[in-house]
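Work package 3, deliverable 3.1, input record:
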Amino acid sequence: MTSSEIPILRLGKILLAGLLKELDDKTAVLFADELSRQVSTVGAEAVVLDITKLEIVDSFAARILVEIATMARLLGARVVVAGMRYPVAITLVELGLDLPGVETALSVEHAVNMLSQPGGSRDG
Amino acid sequence: MLGDAERTREEIARVVGEQRDRIVATWVRTQEITLAAGGAVDGDELREEAETIISCLYEGLAGATPLDQVATRFPPLRNAVTDLSHRWARLGVSATAIAGAIFALKDACVQVLADEISDLGLRLDAIELTNRLLDGAGLLTFQTYVDSREEIIQRQNRQLLEISTPVVRIWRKVLAVPLIGTLDSGRAQIVMESILQAIQDNEAAVAIIDITGVPTVDTAVAQHLMQTVAATRLMGADCILSGIRPQIAQMIARLGIDLSEIITRSSLADALTTAMRMVGDVWPVEEKPSESTFSNVP
């Protein structure tokens, strides 16, 4: 079985993955696949995706992010996308992709803080 | 026919060369009447200008540039004409007066040509050619005038964009952007970029967009604001829209723009209170109930 090149770290009940400069279609699909398996085997409560280094998000990658969020929710976990660069945010908004169901945070630290608060999501 | 054209050209060159002083004198006389009223350019300067242009014209006629392109293609003449219109434009001379000056030069030349060339056919050809040549120069002054104006407008536009979008940090993790003036798509784009960049640089959790100074909000502006809010959410921050005046609120309601996704407050103070609650700081004094017209903070 092939696995994606993106390492998925486990911090208690949180799974943490850092995406690199580019997210091509094949890597994205493999990553989503591997992540879903990990979420279910670990019984994770949350997934934090660090996209600080990611410079390009196309519509396919955006769809994968939304799919990851949907799939994680089905498995009982929240998905937080952390550290989106502002050009990426502008591109996504201009493409009309606002990542429904995906929570966002300024950085991984903020994401972990947010998840540890009992209140739940930042704007929920 | 080509021989004729060449001959005409030589004839013009000869007359212009020989009668240079007379042309200059005639021209200065006419220009002193029209320009001296404004007091911007005096007689000596006029004489200098005229001599420069006439000698460039003479060189152009003697050179190899096709005659109808001498004004636009022959570099010394072209430069002399554009220089003149630049300088005079700066002195506050109107575009009409500058072009008028060139046309008066044409009149002066034509007058001299009419006196000096005895052959009737040749005279007609020479006058026609001179007309065409100096008409080109007149048009060039207009083009130069418009170009320099255009440059000023663009520079001011850029300056306006630079000064019009300050992003200030007003509290720990809270940014404020007071918007003043009409938002068009270009400005909205710059506003969005500077807000997002500031959020990234300061790790700000809340950005307040204050539209007290924005005269009207139409669907396009609302669309830009929604985009900005969506982008800040993607980055993990939040956005509050404040300073919505009653008229604007009415306009938004009447246009049926749905801003329910955005947290809105009527004043910047209210927005700051909300923002501080969101970042976990407590407002130091007793809080008044919010006067929000729209949605409440979730």
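The radius of gyration of chain B is 32 Å.
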